[in-house]
Each structure stands twice: as structure tokens, then as C-alpha cells.
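Predict the structure of DUF305 domain-containing protein.
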Amino acid sequence: MTSRPTDTTPSDTSGEATRSVTLIAGTAILALLVGTLLGWLVFADSTPGDDSVEAGFARDMTEHHAQAVEMSLQVIHTTDDQDIRTLATDIASTQGNQMGQMEGWIRTWDLPMAASGERMAWMADVEGYDDHSMAEHHATGAMMPGMATPAQMEELRSLEGEAADILYLQLMTTHHIAGIDMAQAALDAGVEDEVQRLSAAMVNGQEAEIALMTDMLHARDAQTLEESGEDADH
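Done. Here is the predicted structure for DUF305 domain-containing protein.
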């Protein structure tokens, strides 16, 4: 006797998306509290300054992550593909959690969330930093390398089904490539303690997700923007 596949009705899909968003929001709030507590414990004897690598990394990566969460929440609501929904939920949950931790650190350091200087200025003095490589992923109009432009975000919001899935995978792959470069720069700069641990987790986790997203694109007869030779502006 064979079992019948479970139908996924629009109501089921909407309910699952709502549960995913609720879980992600709860995780981010918990991470903010934990990040603040760990900040008190770990950085009590040496608080990073306003122009430190630690502060620059935490601020810029928080902003970078915010767009990844936004893109993921968008596709969770539009996709009919369970694999895409699972990936997007994992990315939104992980990066929302990491955002909470970094915001908690900044609060503990008694620093403003917004930097007074340019974004990513802290990377300029990191040995081995490749400004040209980052520039390749800096689309005109995007706030930082790897981030989607307003036009790309609007395109993602306008699409549904597989077209939206493919664009999401492409934009998120580029997003991850630049995110890894930023996290690796923090490691190369010699950050310590929780900042080092979180940076290393970002590099490892996002490298694995890039491999997965590349395979998912190929399975859909599509390529990453990097494979297709398209520039950052898509």
C-alpha cells in the first residue's frame, strides 16, 4: 500500500511561512540578549574603541546581514519549493541570530550603531585585503560589496515561483562571497575572543551555503552571476 503525498495548499504554505518568520524573530531577540550578556563577560577588561576593527566589523556585518534576512523572508513567502524555503529559513535564522549577537556587543561597548566614517574603512589596513576583489562585487547603488541594489531588491519582490527562487540564489551567492571576504578580513586583522569565533563561523557556514546554492542553481538550469560573467549590477 503506497501512501499519498501530502498536498501543500496555499493555507499550509502561508502558515509555514508565518511560523518561520516568528521563529526567526524570536531567535534574533534571544541572540541580542545573549550577545549583550557575553559582551559583558568577554569584553569586560578590554572594550574595543569606536575606530577598532571589532567595532567596524560588527557594524558593517550587521547591516550586511540585515539585507540577507530581508531577501530570505521575501522568498519564504513566495516560493513553492520546500528546499528553497528551508535554505532561506536557515539563512534568515542564522544571520538574524548573528545580528543579535553583534548588536549586543556594540551595546556592551557603549558605541553607536552607526559609524561616523565610511563603511568598511576598517578593512583598508588589513594585511592581504584585496580592494579590487571587493570592488568586483560592489554594484552601483548598493551600500556595500555583495549587497543587492534597490532595483535588484524590487525585482526580487516582483517575481514569484522559480524565477524568484533563481534570483534569490544568485543574489545570495554574491552576498555571501563578499560577506566571507569581510569576515576573513576580521580574522586576518587578529580579532580575538567572540569576534574571532563568530567570524570563523561565518566563513565556514557561508562557504558551505555557496556550494549548496550553486548546486541548486545548476539543478534549475541556471548559473551564479559569477559563473555567467555578469557584473555586480546584474
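The first helix runs from residue 10 to 42.
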